[in-house]
Amino acid sequence: MNSNRSLAAEKLRIGGFVPFTAIDYPGHLAAVIFCQGCPWRCRYCHNPHLLASRSSDEITWSTVPAG
Predict the structure, then answer these.
(1) What averages of pLDDT result for each successive group of 10 residues across the chain (67 residues)?
(2) The pTM is what?
(3) What is the DSSP letter of 67?
(4) Do residues 53 and 66 touch, judged by C-beta distance below 8 A?
């Protein structure tokens, strides 16, 4: 793996992780990683806690299981 890509991934802030979902991608089983720091402010957003670029709820990459 390219070391620059590895460093970029380590800096990506994770605001939430769902290890198993059968509803987010109809017809498929999936895991979902929610990134933190959304620049948009949609009125209908169902994840407003992810808007801030930093939070006390931040998850580290080491806690996300590798496939």
Answers:
(1) 57 81 92 84 84 70 71
(2) 0.60
(3) -
(4) no
